């Protein structure tokens, strides 16, 4: 099969981890006789520096015409504490999500048997955790009207949701639930927010189309608690953009290492695959970042293309590297560790 | 000293836990020769049932004229999944916060040596945790404009902040930091939200007035993670209403039992003291709820009245009950446990 994949390395450790995913994908392509055509493009601070724009039109063209997008990370600390910065790398991310229509961010959370004791949570609380958070990604307070009034002394942001936005996300949630243990939890703040009440109303109206799915409704504050108390209590969670931003990061702690958690952002045309970790600027250029989350994101890419065997092959080799301790320093427990590029080479050569 | 305390038992287990706090306060008053005049008043579902309003004017009068308010919990499940309910118990809570001007919710998070192993988090991660979250409580998306458009198919909520709202909350944060380890963390989502950028700008401008305080700025998603990874990294956190709602509940998991965590909501005139747990309807009327969070909230009340010895006495007796295992079933580890009212009696008689 021929695959056009847009390659957005981004900032910080992005380029380094992306390089390893490319090696692994190329090895998979060779083994299964596919032809991957990589289309590199600029995003984030890197794109601001080069062309003054974090998500340039040329990048969008490349992504929109690709079969999928593989993405590293964006963000640079020099923008974070500067409230006056006019162009921010994150704007590129948001523009990309919106222009590509990536309405659902899919974040699986699971544990690796060999790493379970790295979690800050006790083993018995997390062993066997297997949940998916579906975060709405192109609406809500991320894209509502915002601004200043009153000489800049008042600032506002608007959380807006339309019924169809909730429906298409919830539909994905119900579909995932049907393929899994048929439990769906809608997380909101319906005791305060009108938009959350629309979420509840909309999901409730869809329940009849999925009579086998058991649906629950919980408040975001309660879930922020329960997710760490008893993550095994959840299967599929659907939630709004901002709530999902918070919950998915919180959930990533369960696994013990952010360096392992992949994600996809699904659109109606093209989908994007990225590690959930950020650009981790302190580690940039040092060849020490953990590439596994990006590699596992590539596995999600193959999975979504119905190339299940290829996806499994990637997961197998990742598990092998964990089992044999061929890992970067964050996972090495002070023992022998390998460079980012060495781990990438090892994974590719084991395929 | 004479103290007028408004007593708002509320819903669910509220009345039961409040009863125990009253016993303890009365015992303290007797020992230290104070005169507490309790002024009971209706709130929540209980008030809706009685007078059709979750925070009736008479209740407000009583609170506004009291020296302090002691509060149980409100909320009833019959309202939760009914998006069409016109009057909700929670509206009473919000109205109360607004009308009494309770702009800062103060939530300490700490561990009890005897309970540390009840936490889902590993001992070494949490031992010695001692942080305070200051949540803005009368602004933000809780009180902005909200509504429906487009035949009910679009819903919106507005997160609004004015500079003075941020300043008065931040001032409390700086003051707490000065009395503690001089570290303040402002938590926001300034990479997306305009209101968060106003938060950052405002707090940054105040830094010069507190040269000894080391201020950091972190994103809510990152803090949702770090708070469980390494809670000892935080001292005083200041944050907006919605973010605080989520973070304070999340932080409560650290201590291992929500049944232990007190809080205060500070206004310019009167302040309110309440356990952070909810109304826990399943346990209502069974005399099994843990009263310690409410009792410790009463300790915060005495502390704020500069009655430090009285506050210490309450904390001492609570620690004693924990050490001697005179506790409710949630803390009994399957061993001998006591009724809510028995724990209250025991505490009072040990003062
Ligand atoms: C960088 C930021 C704008 C972004 C978000 O909030 O969506 C990030 O936190 C994420 O979750 O992808
Ligand atoms: C009941 C609800 C409206 C309330 C809030 O969100 O403020 C509660 O969760 C709290 O934290 O006191």
Automatic annotation (TrEMBL), chains A, B:
Chief location category: cytoplasm
Keyword flag Cytoplasm: yes
EC supergroup of this enzyme: oxidoreductase
EC number per UniProt: 1.1.1.85
Pathway(s): Amino-acid biosynthesis; L-leucine biosynthesis; L-leucine from 3-methyl-2-oxobutanoate: step 3/4
Cofactor note: Binds 1 Mg(2+) or Mn(2+) ion per subunit.
Record-annotated Isopropylmalate dehydrogenase-like domain positions: 4-347
Site (Important for catalysis) residue list: 142, 189
One example GO MF annotation: NAD binding
Cofactor: Mg(2+); Mn(2+)
Keywords, sorted A to Z: Amino-acid biosynthesis, Branched-chain amino acid biosynthesis, Cytoplasm, Leucine biosynthesis, Magnesium, Manganese, Metal-binding, NAD, Oxidoreductase
Binding residues for Mg(2+): 221, 245, 249
Reactions it catalyzes: (2R,3S)-3-isopropylmalate + NAD(+) = 4-methyl-2-oxopentanoate + CO2 + NADH
Role summary: Catalyzes the oxidation of 3-carboxy-2-hydroxy-4-methylpentanoate (3-isopropylmalate) to 3-carboxy-4-methyl-2-oxopentanoate. The product decarboxylates to 4-methyl-2 oxopentanoate.
Record family assignment: Belongs to the isocitrate and isopropylmalate dehydrogenases family. LeuB type 1 subfamily.
Subunit and partners: Homodimer.
Protein name: 3-isopropylmalate dehydrogenase
Phylogenetic lineage: Bacteria, Pseudomonadati, Bacteroidota, Flavobacteriia, Flavobacteriales
């Amino acid at each position: 099969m021929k695959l056009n994949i847009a390659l957005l390395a981004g900032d910080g450790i992005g380029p380094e981890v992306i390089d390893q995913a490319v090696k692994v994908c190329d090895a998979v392509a060779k083994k299964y006789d596919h032809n991957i055509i990589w289309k590199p493009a600029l995003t984030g601070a890197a794109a601001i520096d080069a062309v003054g724009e974090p998500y340039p039109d040329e990048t969008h063209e490349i992504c929109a015409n690709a079969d999928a997008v593989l993405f590293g990370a964006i963000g640079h600390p020099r923008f974070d504490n500067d409230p006056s910065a006019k162009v921010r790398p994150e704007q590129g991310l948001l523009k990309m999500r919106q222009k590509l229509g990536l309405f659902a961010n899919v974040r699986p959370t699971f544990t690796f048997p060999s790493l379970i004791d790295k979690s800050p949570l006790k083993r018995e609380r997390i062993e066997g955790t297997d949940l998916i958070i579906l975060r709405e990604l192109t609406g809500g307070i991320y894209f509502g009207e915002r601004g200043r009034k009153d000489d800049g002394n008042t600032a506002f942001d608007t959380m807006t949701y339309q019924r169809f936005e909730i429906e298409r996300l919830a539909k994905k949630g119900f579909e995932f639930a049907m393929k899994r243990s048929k439990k769906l939890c809608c997380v909101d703040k319906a005791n305060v927010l009108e938009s959350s009440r629309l979420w509840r109303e909309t999901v409730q109206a869809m329940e009849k189309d999925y009579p086998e799915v058991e649906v629950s409704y919980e408040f975001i504050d309660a879930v922020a608690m329960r997710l760490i108390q008893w993550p095994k209590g959840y299967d599929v969670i659907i939630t709004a953009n901002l709530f999902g931003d918070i919950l998915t990061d919180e959930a990533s702690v369960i696994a013990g290492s952010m360096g392992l958690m992949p994600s996809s952002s699904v659109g109606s045309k093209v989908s994007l695959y990225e590690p959930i970790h950020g650009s981790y600027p302190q580690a940039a250029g040092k060849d020490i970042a953990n590439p596994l989350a990006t590699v596992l994101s590539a596995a999600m890419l193959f999975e979504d293309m119905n190339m299940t065997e290829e996806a499994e092959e990637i997961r197998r080799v990742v598990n092998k590297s964990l089992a044999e301790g061929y890992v970067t320093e964050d996972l090495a427990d002070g023992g022998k560790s390998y460079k980012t590029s060495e781990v990438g080479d090892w994974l590719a050569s084991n395929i």
